[in-house]
């Protein structure tokens, strides 16, 4: 029997009365009845959260985007991918080169749809490559079979000969067709501005034009499509390269790749080799390793398995993410044009002017200096009973447009330095100091689509609300009301699992953080005693919101480094960390995006709420979560967080909101940025994580270093 709080109080009271009653008091002792008392009735278990009404986001009725990897009738293997233009090559390592950053005008004529048709399993030595661009190319380069002997962009096979509107019948020729092409790469009209290029790859090339034997199944084929525009948009260059990919002949899809270790093939191909499964944190979305010395860009890349049809939606969604909703400016590169349609949408009250202003390169926000305004934090606020604050609403919004009473701002006060060496933050409110509040620093955004794709049943299986297995861990599911359908959904995102989908989380951030209304959340945050909060009604169209959602959902997850080292991983598991930071799970077959379906992923989270103890607690409950409960944070990307937050070491790193690469005081982990290192973040764990933390504390320094090395490999 488990004791409820009430039954425990009754039991303690009973024991106290018994002890006092027999202590020699002059009060007469009641006569013991001759019949034995009735056995105590078993107390009911603590009430559990009712999860029976939770509605799945996706099921067998969901409309699915077409698969981009399939076997065509007759046995031809078809792989379709999307790509974008880049400044340099994947293996360029010089101070002036950039591979991971984004070009000026990257949403205009800078994406490509690529198709590989593999006939090798049918006994033919043929991989037919087709790529479609929105604007005509000058040099039509499809580089294949990487060499890299004299240059980092050097491939053995780079055909230049061209012919128009002729069926391919020989190798080394690029065939050109113009018109409009559908998602099956078929021409549907002779009209339009799209351009289709096709070539046949029939041998694996060697240096000097010599041929190796015919194509074989299992051969790694590295390739790169360049997008050298014939007539670039105003303000942009014409010469750009593309992403490097590895295709394993005879297998569907692309392989996130690394350099072959210890291989120096003088005359043949030095193509990349697939990263093994244990390194693929994000399944097939996983990115290959970064060789261009730009670790700050790891959270901004297209998923490796991005479908051909979603490349353009991805870059247009990125434009939404980086647009200033005050003045329409893009936060990268002065030559990017003003987006007039989005001018003046921030407000009436808001926190910051764009998504990217808080989520630096899609990572966590930087910690501010003492005394600085916390405009990359969100402060949820409440009255004495935890209800929306009458003068502030649910969120303190420090910026505003037009008239109205200012809600005030919050600055970082002096840190409280603890004897343990840890620190905790203090906040100074310039206006009303709410009775209850919760401070949240902007989190990293990578992997959201995959977490959305995990089936509800998988997560609910891990719920152990009353710790029935007596292991000290009692994860609870968050229940969230869908504002469109009024259905109950499983909470997945946010520090308290208060949103249920990428779209819901995006709409919340637009609404309270930027003051932009959507059809999902069309009313501004407004306290009962506030006026001039702004009109209700959607300002950002559903089309643009859906593009933003695709962008956030289809960001690739960085591969695990040092994936063969199991020492730290075993220590992590043995300490009990994996009880909440669950290593792996499989996504649903019903997610609408083909890239996210049926993926085995390694996020290291259970997405449940856990009591983390009083030291991390705030005094404001949110939805299903108490002040002490927090959703288990996914750990993928943890090893890249420092670089993403501080920026690259390159002298000309001007990408987005670059920080000072040497300013380690700007790094902050946990929900409020208090932990300066991963070690400090572990030491703040309490409550249900107390035992695991103590296991870590008791380790030798060698063991701690191994566990931290494992975390930094994620």
Question: How much strand?
Answer: 15-25%
From the spread of the alpha carbons, the general shape counts as globular
| Domain module tally | 2
Spatial extent as radius of gyration: 29 Å
Give the strand order, joined by hyphens, for the main sheet: 1-2-3-4-9-8-7
Tell me the distance between the termini: 41 Å
Quantity of strands, as a count: 29
**Structural class computed from helices and strand pairing:** alpha+beta
Largest sheet, in brief, is: 7 strands, mixed
Helix content: 10-25%
Q: Low-confidence parts lasting 5 or more residues at pLDDT below 50?
A: 1-44, 651-658
Number of H- or I-type helical stretches? 11
- What is the residue-averaged pLDDT? 87
Q: How does this model look, in words?
A:
With 714 residues, this protein is α+β, with helices and mostly antiparallel strands. The protein folds into 2 domains: 69-274, no CATH class; 340-713, no CATH class. Helices cover 15% and strands 18% of the residues. It has 11 helices and 29 strands. The strands form 11 sheets. A 7-stranded mixed β-sheet has the order 1-2-3-4-9-8-7. A 4-stranded antiparallel β-sheet has the order 6-5-12-13, with no helix packed on it. The model is unreliable at 1-44 and 651-658 (pLDDT under 50).
